[in-house]
Design a protein that fits this description.
226 residues; 2 domains; elongated; Arc Repressor Mutant, subunit A; Rna Polymerase Sigma Factor, Chain: A; mainly alpha
């Protein structure tokens, strides 16, 4: 990255669509490629992460995808959206890395792994901030445990809100297959979340800590007065 990387992030809204930015990059304003990256970092990370389930590898794939896209930027014909074209490159890079790694895991195998995820039981306690972080971590682990095909579709459709048509184009599968995988992913997540909720429900509405101490003190004080 050039000197622009040390300055304030470029204002994205004033630069038009991705296609507008691409045309300017191809015309010589190479520094504007930063805009492309900042616009698509989250999507590419989520997509790569859904395939590889490794933060560092997902980051590496993002870099590879951006470099590959830049090297072939002139080949973007505008038949679809640039974001779809770029996402497809990231998916290709992620699957290539997965094949090299040669590691595959099924939902059943991962489901057998023991994972501790303690959810806060009372949102009004001082542990509220920890509750949000733990819930988010649990949801991420639940998504990670989906079969890879379902996980990737779920990440694209439910989290990145890509259209069914775009997901089908990126993954080179029929739209009906996208719908089926999304439906099954949601079903699996619902089952896991329901199981976790039932396990946690025994501790719901707990009465401990400061509230418990307060009642005890008050009662003892009143007893002492009688």
């Amino acid at each position: 990255m050039n000197a622009h990387s040390t300055e304030q992030p470029l204002e994205r809204r004033e630069l038009g669509t991705d296609e507008d930015v691409v045309r300017r990059v191809l015309a010589g304003e190479v520094h504007l490629y930063e805009v492309i990256m900042r616009r698509h970092n989250r999507r590419l990370y989520r997509v790569a992460r859904s395939i590889l389930r490794e933060d560092d590898e997902a980051s590496d794939v993002m870099q590879d995808a951006y470099v590959r896209a830049y090297e072939h930027l002139a080949q973007f014909k505008g038949a679809g959206t640039f974001s779809t074209w770029l996402t497809r490159i990231a998916v290709y890079e992620a699957f290539a890395r997965l094949r090299r790694r040669g590691r595959h895991a099924s939902f059943d195998e991962e489901e057998a792994e023991h994972e501790d995820c303690v959810m806060a039981t009372n949102p009004r306690t001082p542990e509220q901030s920890a509750h949000d972080a733990e819930l988010r971590a649990f949801l991420e682990r639940a998504i990670d445990r989906l079969p890879s095909d379902f996980r990737t579709v779920f990440m694209m459709r439910a989290m990145e809100e890509m259209s069914t048509a775009d997901v089908a184009q990126v993954l080179d599968i029929p739209e009906e297959t996208v719908k089926t995988r999304l439906h099954r992913a949601r079903g699996l997540l619902r089952r896991v979340l329901t199981q976790r909720l039932e396990m946690s429900s025994k501790d719901a509405f707990s009465f401990a800590g400061a509230r418990c101490d307060h009642v005890v003190r008050q009662v003892l004080r009143r007893i002492g007065r009688s």
